[in-house]
Amino acid sequence: MKKVILLTLCALLSAQVLCAQTRKGRVEITGDVQVSELVKKHIEFNERMRTVPGYRVQIAALSGPNSRNQAFELKAKFKEEYPEFEVYIIFTEPNFRVKVGDFTNKLDAFVLMQRIKDRYPGTIVKENVYPIHPDMSNIIPETDADADL
Prior knowledge:
Number of helices: 5
Distance between the termini: 66 Å
Oligomer: single chain
CATH topology of the domain at 51-131: Alpha-Beta Plaits
Order of helices and strands: HHEHEEHEH
């Protein structure tokens, strides 16, 4: 008798599970319209502002009279000694900062800092955010499937 009840219960439960898996439902999420508009604006902003976090080596922070000329002279001197690196002058009132490189990881920036610290004392690694300028001309696909993209 117990076996018959147990088998009946198992049959009913398995039938219920099978029916539950074949049912199709619809999920509707309701919320404030302003929240969805804000999310859309956030996505649009991120698509326009294509940036990547990175690091640069700051070789000087200059202020005072003639600091602008000193910054440009330092940029020219550094570019002559190390032509493989980009040199940037950033003006944040009242300072002119001379920064070098576009590094995506901190270790590479530290390697450059160690290389130049004797000639440029006071160098430090600074976090930076710079825009992405993709150059697709030098990308080689890894597989034939990638070439179609």
